[in-house]
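Work Package 3 (structural annotation) set out to generate three-dimensional models for the target panel prioritized at the project kickoff. During this period the team completed the workflow that converts sequence records into discrete structure tokens, so that structures can be stored uniformly alongside our sequence database. As a representative example, we reproduce one entry of 100 residues exactly as it appears in the project archive.
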Amino acid sequence: MGLRFQKRIRLFKGLTLNLSKTGTSFSLGGRGAIVNIRGDKVTGTVGIPGTGLSYRDRLDKPKEPLEVPTDHLAAGRSVNVWKILAVLLAVVVFMLLMKP
């Protein structure tokens, strides 16, 4: 068995610093929707609080390489940017709605 280390430090509501044996990352969001930024990786997680059901996806890379002409490569990158912006907007709206 391998040794694991994980520590989460809440910087303020909605922003967490995650420390582990392999490095650090930041999580933005709250219950139900989180965006995690770690070095060159960006992942988004959405779930139903209290159920254990969630879905996680990398937001910075397409799932599989697309075979398209080279003049369309910029369009594929812009899709990922819109995906990241959509998840960030969902996190902000969710946090505003959950404010007491």
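The mean pLDDT is 80.
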